[in-house]
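Data availability (excerpt). The following record was deposited with the supplementary files.
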Amino acid sequence: MIGFIPEQNIFRQMERYKPLADYIRNKTGYKIELVVLPRYGNIIDNFISKNMDGAFFGSFTYTLAHAKMGVEVIARPENPEGVSTYHGLIFVRKDSGIRTAKDMKGKRFAFVDKAITGDYLLPLDYFYENNIKDYKTYFRETYFTGTHEDTIHDVLEGKADVGAAKNTIYNKLEAADPRVKENLLILKRSPEVPENALALRKDIDETVRMKLKEVLLDMNNQPEGEAILKKFGARRFIETTNDDYEPVVRCCEHIHPDLATYDYMND
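Predicted structure:
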């Protein structure tokens, strides 16, 4: 059982991941059951309650899951331009007059989820840098939308004054909707962190782990695999290790040094 997170519309996410799951099944004989998770934090809860075998984790959820459950990352996709990382963005409407953290006081801030690097860790690090000790009292309202798309749209449509989201989703919406470029302004970007990566539970059979890794890393060398990768929006899968998450760990030190006890559930 493999889970994935709701970065975008759930139906589009399933359309993206199902061909990949079918390819893995055809190459390995392993039955792959996909589970669409309604929110980011649930990916950790469901690992325990549903005895899941793996999931495509965002960089923060992987860092949390590794600390809490010992899951181990194996591979992540590289996009057609050869990029396998992303960064978070803090943005406002150009006509809002907001340009600094001081200008944000008393405004409405839209997050996506409490278990996301670009959407939650970046703002918390930004607040830390600007001596904002309690963002819940600093802002008039803070809330979680559940998806990057919804956060971007909420700021675009004036439901929120400030928002934070992943740059890859922001860029896709910017390309599809000219209003994003015309009306939104990016104030801050985070360091680069690994793109969503497949990680497996720590006690999974080593033969299974190595076979899955081998199939993913070899996809771009197979005609069928190359076609699936194109639909998935990737050039290839690359090997990924815990060392790749060091920027996330460093950022976490500002908000909660003991990740094993971090409360990732939205307020």
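Summary of structural features: The longest helix spans residues 10-28.
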